[in-house]
C-alpha cells in the first residue's frame, strides 16, 4: 500500500500494482490500446506514456512506488498520444466508413478521445492478407495494430498458442499457427478468448456485422475514458480482493 | 455591410455525399449566405476559383485532373479544409490501392463481363489515373480536417460557424466521427 500523485491528485496503490492499475482503480483514465487488465502487460503501443518524476514511462508496465509524481492529462502527453494514434492509422488500412467494427473500435475511440481529426503523415497503404477461411471467424490483417492481445489470449488463456507477429517494420503481420497458415486449420473456436479480445476490427466473429444500429454502439455516446474505466476497474480490483 | 466571406467547394475522388451533407444544414444555409458567398462550387457551377477565404475539398486524388484542381484551390484559398474521409485517407476509392493499376483497368475494360471491343480508354482528353488514390494533405498544405463519411450537417455547421466567428474550429465529442 502507498500513495502516488497523478496530475496532483493523490492516488492509493496496492503493492505490485502498475501505474495504470492504480489509476484505473481510482477512476483516472490513461489512454491505452495494447493493455487489457486481464492479460500480462505488453508495453508496445506507448499510448499510455506518462511522466513519472519527469521521465516518460509506459503506465501499463511501470510499477507504482511510494511518492511518485505522475503526469497524465497534459497537453504535451496528449499531443504525443495523438501522434502515436495517427501513426497507427497510416501504418495500417483503417477505413472506418466501411469497417463493421466502427463504433465499437478502441483505435477509433482513442482517436475521438484525443480529438484526432486527420493525420499529419503520409499513408503506407500496406498490402495485407485477409483470411476468411474459418467458418465463424474473420481475420482482416488490414486493421491489425500488433497489440498481441490475441497472441496473449490464445497462449495464456486458451492454451492454444495460435497467433504470433512475424516480419519487421511495415512488413509486420499476424501469422496463424496451423499447417496451412490458415485460420480454418488452426482449431480456433468462436468460444476462444482470442476471438473476443481484438480492440480493432482485425479478428471478427462472422455474421454479426451492423447488428447494432448507429447511435447505440459502444462509443457513439460514451467516450472511451468512461467505457474503459467502468469495464476495467472491477477487473483490476478483483486481482487483490 | 462588410464584404462577404468567399467560399469555394469541390468534389474530387468523392461521391458528392459530403456536399449532400453540407446541404443538409437545411434552412441554416440562409444564415450562411447572409455572411458568405460561393465562388467555384457544384452549387454555383463556376468553373474556376477566384481568390477565396475558404476552400472545402471533398474527395481524395485519383487522377491528374484532381491534382491540378487541388493546386488551383490551394493557390486561391486562404484556408483549405479536407472535408470527409476520402479527402483525409482516400477511403472507398483507395480500395484499389493494393491492386496494380493495369489490373484494375483490365478488369473493368478488358476482362469484365459483356464487354464489346475490349480496350483500355486512352482518349487524350481523359485525365490520367494515378497509380494509387492519395489523400490531399500528401500534395498540398491542409489547414483543417473535418472527418466523417460524410461529416454530419451539424459538424459542418459547427465548423463553419466557428470559423466565421473567428474562433478556432472545435468539434464536441458527438461531432467527431470517422464513419
Key words describing this protein structure:
heterodimer, A: 241 residues, alpha+beta, Ubiquitin-like (UB roll), Alpha-Beta Plaits, five-stranded mixed β-sheet, three-stranded antiparallel β-sheet, 6 helices, 10 strands, 16% strand, globular, B: 179 residues, alpha/beta, Rossmann fold, five-stranded parallel β-sheet, two-stranded antiparallel sheet, 7 strands, 30% helix
What is the string of SSEs of chain B from the N terminus onward?
Answer: EHHEEEHEHHEEH
User: Average pLDDT value of chain B?
Assistant: 96
If you compute it from the alpha carbons, what radius of gyration of chain B comes out, rounded to the nearest whole angstrom?
18 Å
Unreliably modeled segments of chain A: none
Largest interface: A-B, 25 and 29 residues
Oligomer: heterodimer
Uncertain regions of chain B: pLDDT < 50 for 5+ in a row?
A: none
Strand order, sheet with most strands of chain B: 2-1-3-5-7
| SSE class of chain B | alpha/beta
- What is the third-level CATH name, the topology of the largest domain in chain A? Alpha-Beta Plaits
Instruction: Report the sheet with the most strands of chain A, covering strand number, pairing sense and barrel closure.
Output: 5 strands, mixed
Succession of helices and strands of chain A: EEHEEEHHEEHEEEHH
If strands are numbered along the chain, what order do they take across the biggest sheet of chain A? 2-1-5-3-4
Report the β-strand fraction of chain A as a percent range.
15-25%
Approximate helicity band of chain A: 25-40%
Helical percent range of chain B? 25-40%
Give the helix/strand class of chain A.
alpha+beta
**CATH topology description of chain B:** Rossmann fold
Q: What general outline of chain B do the C-alpha atoms trace? A: elongated
Mean pLDDT of chain A: 97
Please provide a written account of the structure.
The complex is a heterodimer of chains A (241) and B (179). Chain A has 241 residues and is an alpha+beta fold. Chain A folds into two domains: 2-81 and 222-240, Ubiquitin-like (UB roll); 86-220, Alpha-Beta Plaits (2-Layer Sandwich). Chain A is built from six helices and ten strands. Chain A has helices at residues 19-25, 75-91, 106-113, 149-157, 218-221, 224-240; strands spanning 2-6, 9-13, 49-52, 55-58, 69-71, 130-131, 137-140, 163-166, 173-176, 203-205. A five-stranded mixed sheet of chain A has the order 2-1-5-3-4, covered by helices on one side. In chain A, strands 6-7-10 form a three-stranded antiparallel sheet, with no helix packed on it. In chain A, strands 8-9 form a two-stranded antiparallel sheet. The longest helix of chain A is centred in the middle third of the chain and has 17 residues, at 75-91. Chain B has one domain (5-96, 131-175): NADH:ubiquinone oxidoreductase-like, 20kDa subunit (Rossmann fold), CATH 3.40.50.700. Chain B has six helices and seven strands. Chain B has helices spanning 17-23, 28-35, 64-76, 85-89, 101-109, 153-164; strands at residues 5-11, 36-38, 52-58, 61-63, 77-83, 129-134, 144-146. Chain B has a five-stranded parallel sheet, sandwiched between helices. Chain B has a two-stranded antiparallel sheet with strand order 4-6. The longest helix of chain B is centred in the middle third of the chain and has 13 residues, at 64-76. Chain B is elongated, with a radius of gyration of 18 Å. Chains A and B meet through helix 3 of A and helix 4 and strand 7 of B.
